[in-house]
Write a structure and sequence with these properties.
Elements: H1 16-28, E1 31-33, E2 42-44, E3 60-66, H2 76-88, E4 92-98, H3 100-110, H4 114-118, E5 128-133, H5 139-147, E6 152-158, E7 169-173, H6 194-205, E8 210-216, H7 218-228, E9 229-231, E10 244-249, H8 255-262, E11 268-273
Antiparallel strand pairs: 1-2, 3-5, 3-6, 4-5, 6-9, 7-10, 7-11, 8-10
Length: 276
Amino acid sequence: MTSSAEEVEFGPEPGRGRVWGRRVLGGLAVLLVAGVAAVGVQVARRVPVPPPGGPWPDTGEFRVELCGPMCPPPTREQRRAIEARLRAMPGVTAVRYWSKKEQYQEFARKVTNAEFLASVEVDDMGESFRGGLRPPARPLAFIEEAERLPGVSVAYVERPSFWLGKADLGVLMCPKSPPLDPKDPCADRQEVTDQEKDRIAQRLFEFSGVEEVYFSDAAHSRKVEEHSMVYTGGQRDDESRSVGFYVKLEDKAAAGAVERAVGRLPGVRQVTTFAR
């Protein structure tokens, strides 16, 4: 008795990542015949599948950074003009001004390096306007218009993760370029290997509460990043981006056990959770 699986490519990822995607669905997705020939029992080995086609989040939050200290800060009149224009733009749901003090306080909550934090003062921070964005607004067009306003340094839009509502856990793996942070699990090592990917996937499927495992290759991971964080200028660092498995759980309470089981496997960089 023979069986076969349709070859499915997860994305236009060159090199062995693409080969791994082909091999998984073309090789591992073969029905394994159990040693019970008399009754013809077959056991299917579960394999990761490509990401769902959508939906892609269409709302987000914008941040418009005002000039200073790297460029001349806006005058009071310019600040008022910026706020008025932002409020008038299509799809803007709210606008709020953030002072240097507020931005510093937010920055201080996020920084874990006390020595670095001590070197930064309130006056080192800039001011900003922040708010919500929804259709019919187009994030890139919004950003380009905002950045043309006198007194604006840079703008960007952040949207919810594509995986929110589709997966409960994300298992990010070691990228092509080793991270510079010596504390990073992937520092001083090469990109995750095919064998390591196989082992991680196998370990995930050992949990009965795992409903589905998606594999996001380099092309899809880049698309997710570009959709989640929209900005102009600068280049995306493809070499340091992680591919990953995204796990949908039948039992949400199993998240901690799954995270502990795979978090320290070779090739795993980080396990993230997605919660509404």
